[in-house]
Design brief:
This protein has 185 residues and is of the alpha/beta class. The chain is 56% helix and 14% strand. It has 8 helices and 5 strands. Strands 2-3-1-4-5 form a 5-stranded parallel beta sheet, with helices on both faces. α2 crosses α3 and α4 packs parallel to α5. It starts with a strand and ends with a helix. 30% of the residues are buried. Bound molecules: BIS(adenosine)-5'-pentaphosphate and magnesium ion. The site of BIS(adenosine)-5'-pentaphosphate (AP5) has 31 residues, from α1, α2, α3 and α8.
């Protein structure tokens, strides 16, 4: 089962994916985590991404789709995975569709976590990540809003978009997500 989680920074994508990994037994593919590891390890991808990430900007589509293509070709993704923070743009969504089609797969659902901006600022101020400074968070949020409508329309047209209230405790949010995922298993 291939599932996409989208939502602004701090929406709880990573938090919910950890729970979903356990219940669905499929891997978690977070482009943000892969990029952070690449930056830490000083790889070519890390070098190409570091500047954009620390400024709260998107990393170019070409870099992202290469990462995803590589990760998807690993055997543990054969029966599905959870895409966290990918796709973020329409070209990325199109690439994902093509890559899954090549493998004879398709997306089962897209879950959009909806969280109020005040709550996001509150959540991220409690973390210690390099891109969580108030100035960079504001830019990450601006970037998110600018591109999300396009992505929403893309998945709405495909009948895949499910908006989920991301406010409340992680357990409450997880229950809401399960109601969407369970009937499709
Ligand atoms: P990425 O790593 O994807 O970061 P993000 O989307 O900005 O989101 P976060 O990871 O900050 O938030 P989250 O939704 O995972 O929330 P979390 O569960 O951690 O991307 C980072 C950067 O990489 C981007 O800015 C970009 O530069 C680049 N990038 C990545 N993918 C890309 C792509 N596809 N294209 C281009 N560039 C890309 O929760 C946040 C906090 O809130 C935690 O402390 C958590 O404990 C807490 N929390 C979670 N849920 C709740 C709850 N229900 N109640 C209270 N607290 C909660
Ligand atoms: Mg995350």
């Amino acid at each position: 089962m291939f599932i996409v989680l989208i939502g602004p920074p701090g929406a709880g994508k990573g938090t919910q994916c950890k729970r979903l990994v356990e219940c669905l037994q499929i891997p978690h593919l977070s482009t943000g985590s892969i990029l952070r590891a690449a930056v830490r390890n000083g790889t070519e991808i890390g070098k190409a991404a570091a500047e954009n990430m620390s400024a709260g900007k998107l990393v170019p589509d070409g870099v992202i789709t290469e990462i995803v293509r590589l990760r998807l070709s690993e055997p543990d993704c054969e029966n599905g995975c959870l895409f966290d923070g990918f796709p973020r743009t329409e070209p990325q969504a199109e690439t994902l569709e093509t890559e899954l089609e090549k493998r004879g797969n398709k997306l089962a659902a897209v879950v959009q976590l909806v969280v109020a901006e005040e709550e996001i600022l509150d959540r991220l101020s409690g973390r210690q990540r390099a891109d969580d400074s108030p100035v960079v968070v504001r830019d990450r949020l601006k970037g998110f809003h600018a591109i999300t409508d396009q992505l929403k329309r893309f998945y709405e047209a495909e009948g895949l978009l499910n908006q989920v209230d991301g406010m409340g405790t992680p357990d409450q949010v997880f229950e809401r997500i399960q109601k969407i995922i369970d009937p499709r298993r």
